[in-house]
Structure formats: structure tokens, C-alpha cells
Amino acid sequence: MDHGVPFALNNRVRRLVAPNPGMMTGPGTNTYLLGHDAIAVLDPGPAIPEHIDAILQAGDGRIRWIVCTHTHPDHSPAWQAVAEATGAQVLGALPADDRFQDDTFKPTRELQHDDLLQAPEFSLRALHTPGHVSNHFCFLLEEEGMLFAGDHIMKGSTVVIVPPGGDMKAYIESLRLLLDYPLASIAPGHGELIDEPRAEVEHLVEHRLKRERKVVAGLEQLGRADTDALVKVMWMWRATSGPSCHWPPT
Ligand SMILES: [Zn+2]
Q: Which end of the chain is more exposed for a tag (fewer CB within 10 A), N or C?
């Protein structure tokens, strides 16, 4: 992926990849620009000067909103520089209670589930999807059926769920919630578009439930066990699960 060069995904959406590739971020954080005359920047990404410049250049003086899926340091920190340069409204949820937050984040409008951003060229619906972290939102671009999934879903790898911010029960419920919406594609916070959203979401739910059954089976085999012993047994059974490579590091 080219860093700093906007790539058109459809008539309404362009993608910029931040220059922060790595173990936790894949090719880099995806920043999406929605609309052309009045633009929403979705997940401005890390506060890296080249990335901020690329956003402002692609925005061409027409950025009106900054929207954040959550406040991990690879997703939101550039909000401040972009807001200062453009006067854009900032939409998101307050930083969550884990140890990996962009504490600078201050939304001008605090999101609630089902809030709608009605722009001249698009309507963007906010869906509260706790799990990866409690303040996580996905956004549905209704005209395209495109879901901006932040770190809720990533192609080909397992999203990390770490307490206290992460919550597996909430995560599975937040995956199931997505099945209520007419999704045509998923635009994740890292990596390429996912074209078969329903199959992907169903697969993820099944994958997590399978793991849960393994934990139960491991406990049944070991009786009382600490986490290390349990992980060892589960590791031996490990068959095909993909790598866990995402923020926050564990
Ligand atoms: Zn995250």
C-alpha cells in the first residue's frame, strides 16, 4: 500500500494509509475520507506530520468532521492537528478505561449508539461495538452498505481483546449486532476491504465460541489450573487460528 496517496474505494470514499506499519498495525492505520465537498475524516490515525499533511492535502480545505472508531494511539491522535487546521467537528466517544489510550481526545460531539451524521453526500450511522475496547464504534455508510470497522474486525487476523478495556462477551455480542444491518463490505482499520461481510462476521463468532469451548475443555481436563497451564494445553491443541497481531500488545 502507498502511504500518503489517497486511493478511491468508490465514489464517496477514499483511503489513506498512515506510515505506521508494524506488528500491531499491519500495513499502517487506514484513514478514510468520506465525501468530496464536505468531508468526514474517519480515524485520522497517529499524529505523524507526513500523515497529517496528507490528510489536509486530500481534504483540500473541505474537512468538516473528524470521526473516531476508538481512542487507541494508532487511530485518533491526529484529530487535534486536523481539527486545529480545519475547525472540523470531532465525533467520538471519550477515552476508555484501559492503559492504552490517546488521552488527548476530546470530542465536540460525544457519540451515542445509532447517532446519524447526515452530510450532503452521505449518511453515516454510529454503531456502538464494545469488545476490543469499551468505547469502540463502527460506522455504517448507508448509501454504500460499507461498514467502517476500526479494530472490531480485521481480515485474516484475530483482534486482541484484553481486559479491562476488552470484553469477550461484549465482543461477540457486538459481532452479532452487525448481522442486523445490510452490509455490502467492511472497511477495516488496518488492511484491505472485506467483500463478504456476513460470512466473515459469522466465521468470527464461530471462531471465538470454538475457543471458548476449548477453554472449558482444558479446564475439564486439568481440573484446577492457572492460566499458564491452561494456555499450554490449548497451545498443544492449536490447529489453524491466525496470528494475534494487533494493538494493544500483550
Ligand atoms: Zn485498537
A: C
